[in-house]
Amino acid sequence: MLEFAILGLLHESPMHGYELRKELAAKLGSIRAAISYGTLYPTLRRLQSAGYITEADETPPTTAEVPVLTSKRGRVVYKITAEGKERFADLIAQAGPETYDDAGFGIHFAFFARTDQATRLRILEGRRRKVEERRESMRDVLARAGERLDAYTLELQRHGLDACEREVRWLEELIVNERSGRAPEPRSAGSGTAETSPHVQDERP
Amino acid sequence: MLEFAILGLLHESPMHGYELRKELAAKLGSIRAAISYGTLYPTLRRLQSAGYITEADETPPTTAEVPVLTSKRGRVVYKITAEGKERFADLIAQAGPETYDDAGFGIHFAFFARTDQATRLRILEGRRRKVEERRESMRDVLARAGERLDAYTLELQRHGLDACEREVRWLEELIVNERSGRAPEPRSAGSGTAETSPHVQDERP
DNA sequence: TTGCGATGTATCGCGCCGATACATCGCTGC
DNA sequence: GCAGCGATGTATCGGCGCGATACATCGCAA
User: Can the keyword DNA-binding be found in this entry's annotation (chains A, B) (predicted)?
Assistant: First the structure.
């Protein structure tokens, strides 16, 4: 899953680890906490040895040869390879059941701008189905659990049920929009949100 | 974290693994998916060798000695020990920072009926603080990210921000109730939810 | 000049997950 | 009468991801 996110980010521009983590935190802030280094660096290694990313020597060597003696060992910038782009596309296309849990869905959604409309629709509907199942199961618990559960547990279920219902409604909206070919409407999110046009689909480097 | 949940459940009555999983799914349905057996059984083992739980031979031996030859190896029922209850109380009292993330908070909340009021308040406030921080960080992203992020990512942030704001309001309500000494008000959750009175605090076996 | 916070790379132990295997029990259908 | 199927039930394995920790450099403020 993190593999997917990293490939997605490097798809936009080369980056080093620290930067990657910050961008990820910004892009996925609503889904998950910042990625741990204990995950990030091993994953980068794995991606590199799989050939999906390579080290890009940072400084364009023309500027100056000044700092030769300090061995530096500074930041390591990675960039995505052709195989990496292919892999990313595969991961989008496959979209198994793990794509519909909280984390998986969020990450896939965050890269919808690089996902074709049919797949977007498929993922949104899969997610909706999953959240609906969750909702039904919680309704059941709330219905037959008058005695069995204490007041706090019930309150927790109620709050969770509410969140599920909200998410389903949100997904419905997105699905309707998607079917009609529009990108998510800009809506009020500040004052002058720029015209982020659909701009879907930009494969090929 | 799962250690805490298992101890909490066994605190109520002895159970075998499968049952434990189902009860957990019902009690924590709003928080997390059902616990995996790959977690459950090793955890039970760990708890047992730490002395927090023991095997309880299921059948009261008086009923019948009929099935002797079939070696059976059927369900293994566990029950909590005195050390286990102590451990559970410790885990409630400590309530470190991991108590405030999504999973940790949910699990602790689910056992609020066994938690004293002061600790309940402390946990609710810690959680609120954490969600508020998350909310602020997402507001920042939304404010300065007109250009940097695409429409889908923005939509994701908006949905996440909304969820944060709701949770903060929910927590505020709970905190007010808690301060005034009331349990969460029954509210509309069916037709005749029975009088689940506060009934907080039942230590001592 | 000392010290601190941001930037930056890296490892280690371990909790937890999903897949998988396997065995028993009771039901329904042929 | 027995075949198959879904529920109940215990268990292991590989691997992802986390939190803690270590360490090194840079710029700035006290």
Answer: yes
CATH number at A48 reads 1.10.10.10
Q: Do B29 and A141 touch (CB under 8 A)?
A: yes
Query: What are the structure tokens assigned to B119, written together?
Result: 């600790």
Query: Looking at the domain assignment, is residue A135 inside a domain?
Result: yes
Residue range B14-29, pLDDT digits in tens: 999 999 999 999 999 8
Q: Which two tokens stand for residue A119?
A: 């797949």
Q: Which nucleotide is nearest to B67 (CA to C1')?
A: C24
- Where chain B has pLDDT below 70, the residues are 58-73, 145-147, 185-205
Assess A109–B contact: CB distance below 8 Å, yes or no: yes
Q: Name the nearest CA neighbour of A191 among B146, B149, B161.
A: B146
What is the number of other CB atoms lying within 10 angstroms of the CB of residue A81?
A: 18
> Is A27 inside any structural domain?
yes
Among chain A residues, CA nearest to B101: A33
A74 CB-to-strand C distance under 7 Å:
yes
Q: Are residues B95 and B176 in the same domain?
A: no
**Which domain range does residue B139 map to?**
116-183
pTM of the model: 0.85
Q: How far is CA B179 from the centre of its chain?
A: 22
Tell me: do B110 and B177 sit in the same domain.
no
Partner A contacted by B78 (CB < 8 A): no
User: What are A43-80's pLDDT values in tens digits?
Assistant: 999 999 999 999 987 554 444 444 433 445 578 999 99
For residues B75 and A1, give the distance between their C-alpha atoms in angstroms, rounded to a whole number: 36
CB within 8 Å of chain B, chain A residues 185-204: 186-187, 189-190, 192-194, 196, 198-199
pLDDT band, very low/low/confident/very high, at A147 (cuts 50, 70, 90): low
Same domain, A86 and A125: no
Nearest residue on chain A to B102, judged by CA atoms?
A32
